[in-house]
Write a structure and sequence with these properties.
By secondary structure, the chain is an alpha+beta fold. Helices cover 28% and strands 16% of the residues. The protein has a single domain (2-242, 254-266), classed as Muramoyl-pentapeptide Carboxypeptidase, domain 2 (2-Layer Sandwich), CATH 3.30.1380.
């Protein structure tokens, strides 16, 4: 019962904040990627622009810190310069941050963005296609490797460009994608330490940017471990596939929002 009430309150707060648009004033980011939070002074990524299109507008939100939006537009430009297909951008954050549909704990402070990984050639999407498109997984159904039909040097180049963006904290991908990068990336591999394995993320990357300078209420996560991340810590993810499925557990209540977010999410 407590979980349901907490979830309902957070969902209503998020829906209300999204309906009102961004909180006015200078940029103010409160909270962190694992604690929940909010943002004032957010700006929106346009529905489309040079090298990118947003998708699933009926259940995605495309607001973020001005720096996040600028970095994504730079990403699209550099990907186009490299000859890659138009980037497909999903969730960033709600206009005032806070909980997102689907139970995201991250994507609440305007510093996270999801970008599709499928780099097969395609044309410009129609409005209907942008609404209904289903991003194709790069990973085999068994989770133990990549799908050769969608894996290519273009995917590696896309991730390399993303990792070189200003202020990138880390990029989350499926463990099988990280494994393939460890095997196939050549030349300078220093960027691999920013590519981190995580559950899901088989069809899109999750880019997380660092807290902008001067944002004292923004909680910065510890940096990724040193090294390429191609050691036994990566094998751990595949070892879990051999373990029996755990029994169903009760859903956990989402983390409480920082108290300072109440005024941003509930204000005019």
């Amino acid at each position: 019962m407590k979980f349901r009430l907490a979830f309902l309150f957070l969902a209503m707060s998020a829906a209300s904040a999204m309906a009102r648009g961004p909180a006015p004033g200078p940029l103010h980011i409160i909270g962190g990627p694992n604690t929940g939070g909010c943002i004032a002074g957010a700006v929106s990524l346009p529905a489309e622009g040079p090298g990118f299109e947003t998708i699933h507008p009926d259940h995605s939100a495309f607001w973020g810190a001005p720096q996040t939006i600028a970095h994504l537009e730079l990403f699209a430009h550099e990907a186009a310069e490299a000859g890659l297909p138009t980037l497909l951008v999903e969730d960033i954050s709600n206009p005032r941050g806070g909980p997102m549909p689907g139970g995201h704990v991250s994507h609440q402070i305007g510093l996270d963005a999801d970008v599709g990984l499928d780099m097969r050639p395609r044309g410009v999407l129609t409005a209907a296609e942008r609404q209904s498109i289903e991003l194709r997984s790069i990973v085999r159904p068994d989770g133990r490797g990549i799908d050769p039909a969608t894996w290519s040097p273009r995917v590696i180049e896309l991730l390399r460009i993303a990792a070189a963006l200003p202020e990138v904290d880390r990029i989350l991908v499926n463990p099988a994608i990280k494994q393939a990068l460890c095997r196939d990336a050549t030349g300078d591999r220093s960027w691999l330490h920013l590519i981190r394995p995580w559950y899901g993320h088989a069809a899109h990357m999750h880019i997380r940017f660092r807290c902008p300078a001067g944002q004292a209420d923004c909680v910065q996560a510890p940096p990724p471990p040193a090294g390429e991340g191609c050691d036994s810590t990566l094998q751990w993810w595949f070892d879990q596939l051999n373990m029996p499925a755990p029994p169903p557990s009760k859903p956990r209540a989402p983390p409480p929002l920082p108290a300072a977010c109440r005024a941003i999410l509930a204000g005019d």
